[in-house]
Specification:
Elements: E1 6-13, H1 17-29, H2 31-35, E2 40-50, E3 54-68, H3 71-80, H4 82-90, E4 93-106, E5 126-134, H5 139-150, E6 159-168, E7 172-179, H6 182-191, H7 193-205, E8 208-223
Antiparallel strand pairs: 1-3, 1-4, 2-3, 2-6, 4-8, 5-7, 5-8, 6-7
Helix pairs in contact: 3-4, 5-7
């Protein structure tokens, strides 16, 4: 029997210096509330990188990734917790993405938090999270190659949104993307010469201490940061 698990990615964009300082502070102070969230089995507080795969921080955008027992537990915390009311009030724009796991391989902090869930009918949009913990000794080599490997993503057919997120700048990084359908994602992943070359280099150079590749069905979206038609 497939799981009822739901994964949420909550993205917040902050408008001014004081709001950005508050958001940066929550990278430390939000842990207590997130650890107590009922029905949440895994979470990550993440900052973001600048556009065009620049590893330097974008101080205006932060995200919260959470894995829930079910949709109801996710909704209860996101819409009623004091923590998220703070996120909503301080941010100028936000987007809450509800996703069901399609597949996931690899590890995140020693385990795989994503369980395959029952898909919804008539919702073709998919999301991908590629997460890696980069070896310090391979840091320079890795970031030199990133612009080349990711350049095709800028003009990829069916790409709706992409952003680099991470727990620690330069070292603990994740690429998040939204696609119109699985075919578009597969075309980029398996037919882009640069991306295929990046996969080969990953195997040969072994610049990751830990990595995880995951795909999701996007089942619901709320907010004003992105224009998404999920149905």
């Amino acid at each position: 029997m497939a799981s009822e698990q739901i994964t949420t990615l909550s993205i917040f964009k902050y408008p001014n210096f004081l709001a950005k300082v508050w958001a940066f502070g929550m990278m430390q102070f939000a842990h207590n509330s997130l650890q107590k969230a009922e029905g949440c089995s895994f979470y990550k507080l993440m900052g973001s990188g600048k556009e065009n795969f620049n590893p330097f921080p974008d101080w205006s955008v932060y995200a919260v990734l959470q894995v829930w027992e079910n949709h109801e537990k996710a909704d209860a915390f996101i819409h009623h917790s004091k923590l998220f009311q703070g996120y909503f009030s301080k941010s100028a724009k936000h987007q809450i993405l509800y996703m069901k796991s399609i597949q996931a391989r690899g590890e995140w902090n020693g385990g795989n938090p994503f369980q395959k869930a029952s898909p919804d009918e008539g919702k073709p949009m998919v999301c991908a999270i590629t997460r890696a913990s980069i070896k310090w000794s391979k840091m320079l080599t890795f970031w030199k190659f990133v612009p080349t490997s990711q350049k095709p993503l800028l003009n990829a057919s069916g790409l709706v949104y992409t952003k680099g997120f991470g727990e620690v700048p330069f070292v603990e990084m994740a690429t998040f993307s939204i696609w119109e359908n699985a075919n578009n994602l597969n075309q980029f992943a398996y037919q882009s010469r640069e991306h295929v070359e990046a996969i080969k280099k990953t195997r040969n150079i072994q610049w990751y201490k830990e990595e995880l590749f995951s795909r999701f069905q996007l089942v619901k979206s709320e907010g004003n940061l992105l224009e998404l038609n999920v149905d």
